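[Automated response] Your request has been received and processed.

Submitted sequence:
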Amino acid sequence: MTDQKQPAESSADKARTHTRGAKFFEALLANSGDVLTLLDDKGHYIYHSPAIKEMIGIEPEEALGFFAADIVHSEDRDRVADRIRYCLANRGVRLSENFRLPHADGSWRWVEADVRNLLDDPDIQGVLVVSRDVTSRRRIEDHFSIAEHTAGFGTYRWDKGCDAPAISPALARMLDLPDEAEKLPDAAMYELLHPDDVDRVSSTFASLEDDPKPFSLAMRLRQQDGSYRHFVSHGFPELDTNNEITSVVGIMDDVTESLNTELSLKRTAEEYKLIADHAHDMFARHAPDGRVNFISPAIKTVLGYTPEDAIGQKMIDWAHRDDKAMVEQKMEELRNGAESVLMTFRLWNAAGNFVWLESTAHRIDDDQTGEMVEAIAITRDISERKEYEQRLLDAREKAETANRTKSTFLANMSHELRTPLNAVIGFSEILKRKMYGPLGDPVYDEYANLIHESGTHLLDLINDILDMSKVEAGKMEISPEPIDMVETIETCMRFLESKSAAKNQHMQLNVLTPQSDNTAYADIRATKQILINLLSNAVKYTGEGGVIRVDVQTQSDGLEVSVCDNGVGIDPVDIPRLLRPFEQVADKSSQAEEGSGLGLALTKSFAELQGGTFHLESEKGQGTRAIVILPSAQGDLTPSAVSA
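Generated structure:
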């Protein structure tokens, strides 16, 4: 019998024999980084592998008998308890969960657990939990999440074969999605892209197959409300050992606001440039020392220079010598804190002539230091306005000169005008009274009366004009002295008595103070002229049977004389106008006769020349009260000539 050689034991057989030993499994579990835990059908710990000491610093036996959710962090407890109960109720189910467990050193450790219900497995009869310490990873994720939030970017990971990428909570917020959204909600990521960006984005990702390298890509993504925001993606492909792309990882930066700001600034700059290029006013930026940093093209139109000619120059060097001190003073005010200054000055233009300019300069400060860093000036050509102003000044000067000449002429012509009129009136008076016998025909009597009346009226008009001319020319002389005002008023009333009687009017004088107090310190001629003017107006504008009353009384500021009537009256709005020379009431039908329109103006002037006052009180249809107050003669007064 031939001995047969036994076949050698195979490697597989040796492995099976080796792994059957209990010590092998114990050693394997002791050196595994993951912790194997068994829960019974009530969710209590019944076994921990030795690796639990590595993970939370306690011996396996110390953590047995507890309900699994009782020792997790309080914030995770309810969620973990619900997941355990769900797992116990569903045989064969598998799930994953993250939670925190306490370490023996007092810290908390993040644990990631894969859980499987094996209660129906006769060899296990429990819930198997395979857990690992992910604290470092969670810390990195938290730090990265903070970085995402602070820097304003989000991350994504697009695994090959998936319709849409997984996204971080930060990117979810940027896309107006809930923080817990882990993937884009649409079936394909391209559905979120703006239609105009789809081809460009898809071609970029397709090119990674042939040239897998980092990329940057601008795109627009649709928000939940249908609007689009601008993003820039910086990404790179992940490769396997065969250099095949397994996923694309990247960050998304929302650049909508910065892009809008950039576009807005660009539009604003373009608008300002358009304004500066086409405005007639010059826009300039000056350094604190006055040098030009920028000036608009309008300088060519205004001064004949190009902007390049002015850059680096001090405009004050081009100013008229009479204006330099003022310009420097205004700029100093700006440097000392004034927000803006307004200047009118002259600058040399390229043709060698001066141009009148008006400039408003505004101070610009440094936000940090508050120091002035530049001045913005807006300058316009006002040469045409200055020329117009000069023409007005010249015309005004000519008019004033002509007026002075006229007044001087009329004042000087007083004697020449009055002398022939006095002769006409005197001779007509002789004819009227038939001092040398009868004229022979009644018609001569009528003509003599007409000559006398016309001459007298003409003399009154000329006297008014000449008196006003003297006042305007400053040649009206008055000589104040104590005068009996009651006697003066009675004299003037007798002068107008015949005219008043012709209209059946009643004139009366009321003296309201003792006789000793009725002395005024005034010029007799000017005072009589005042009273005659006021009484004439009262007679003229009071109808048949009217009443004219003159009141005299002493006031604290002088002797008051008021002439009151119940005539047609004056509208109060017309009173200021009637106190000006040559003004008359607008309603001609209310006038009894024509006049020079100087009576009230002369009355006011004569009263003021004597240190008194004059004003009117009246209502339309209610009569008029004219009030003159002249200085009282009470006290130690020395008569003296007063020249106006």
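Summary generated for your ticket: The CA atoms of residues 613 and 629 lie 5 Å apart. The mean pLDDT is 79.
If you did not submit this request, please reply to this message.
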